Amino acid sequence: MRYLITGGAGFIGSNYAHRLIARGEDVVIYDNLSRRGAVLNLAWLRAEFGETGFTFVEGDVRDAALLTATAGSADVIVHLAGQVAVTTSVLHPRADFEANALGTFNVLEAARLAALRRDTPPVVLYASTNKVYGEMKGVAVVEEATRYAYRDFPHGIAEDFPLDFHSPYGCSKGTGDQYVRDYARIYGLPTVVFRQSCIYGTRQFGIEDQGWVAWFVIAAVTGRPLTIYGDGKQVRDLLFVEDLLDAYDAAIARIDRVAGEVFNVGGGPDNQLSVWREFGPLLEQLTGHPVPVAYGPWRPGDQRIYVSDIRKAARLLDWRPRVGVERGIERLYEWVVAHRELFAD
How would you write the pLDDT of the chain (345 residues) with one tens digit per residue? Predict the structure, then answer.
């Protein structure tokens, strides 16, 4: 099959491209290379598969004409491109809207127009976010010694939890989320929304504003300063990137049954960790030395805890995480250490 991956040189995109190319799929990577890590990931893919192993289109999802032309022959469109940081969205809300809301609309229109010319419409997978649930202030949270915990949601947050977009990022990603759902209803496009929790793994060039697991590891390895915003007891469920890609594959294989569905995908209750009170000791064990941190104020809209209820994905996709959080962090740490030169500046 022919796959188009928007943001295909990013963290998740490059990992998926590598998987697909290695098994013989026809892959088109569409990326504007706006982040340093994208350039490095593209070079890695070229080193692995050569210049002719895949097609690269340097383009922006805001460019509707180029996107439509590129998507015309795709069997599957995996839409990963976008603005990814809450803090950036607060500083530059228009750019955030154009990249995420308008960019996703352009992807859907490209898919709809392609469907008009073909017997089989392209499958569209959309990487949404748990931020569509907002700050979740009404959820009862219990403070424990090293973490926050839900009082009433032992399995985590399910897909029917009320949406409450918070921050420009939440609004722009949530807009895309709802458009993707509606294009399945109105136009019959086979779409699937993945409301992703904390995805981490190799090829992740995390920075302070986004990709906190990788950023903490990179900072600890390279001796850069670390700041914890809040008290460090905030909890996230962590999902290793390979497990996320398994969910993508499962949705594509079962698209006749899951078109139009939304899935919360994360590590679930078995792979939750507080961002410093529990993550910090794991990192110090791996590095073999203390990792000093400073503390800053809470960030706007930050959830005290978010854990995905992944039972729907287990039921409909026959999917569940396979890489435990401690092993996943260890694999990320080993990759950063082995590629220390990539983080020299």
Answer: 999 999 999 999 999 999 999 999 999 999 999 988 999 999 999 999 998 999 999 999 999 999 999 999 999 999 999 998 888 888 999 999 999 999 999 999 999 999 999 989 999 999 999 999 998 988 999 999 999 999 999 999 999 999 999 889 999 999 999 999 999 999 999 999 999 999 999 999 998 888 999 999 999 999 999 999 999 999 999 999 999 999 999 999 999 999 999 999 999 999 999 999 999 999 999 999 999 999 999 987 788 999 999 999 999 999 999 999 999 999 999 999 999 999 876
CATH architecture for segment(s) 2-343: 3-Layer(aba) Sandwich (3.40)
Nearest to 304 by CA among 133, 84, 141: 141
Neighbours of 95 (CB within 10 A): 15
Report d(CA 86, CA 100) in Å as an integer.
12
Q: Are 271 and 238 in contact (CB under 8 A)?
A: yes
- Helices assigned H by DSSP within 148-240: 167-187, 212-222
16 is catalytic: no
Token pair 């409450």 in the structure block, residue: 164
Neighbouring residues of 123: CB distance < 8 A, sequence distance ≥ 6? 75, 76, 77, 190, 191, 192, 252, 255, 259
Residues 6+ away with beta carbon under 8 Å from 101: 171, 172, 175, 176, 179
Instruction: Provide the pairing of β-strand 141-143 with 148-150.
Output: antiparallel
**3-state DSSP call for residue 6?**
strand
Q: Which amino acid is at 73?
A: S
Instruction: Give the active site residue among 16, 30, 126, 169.
Output: 169
Sequence ranges of the domains in the chain: 2-343
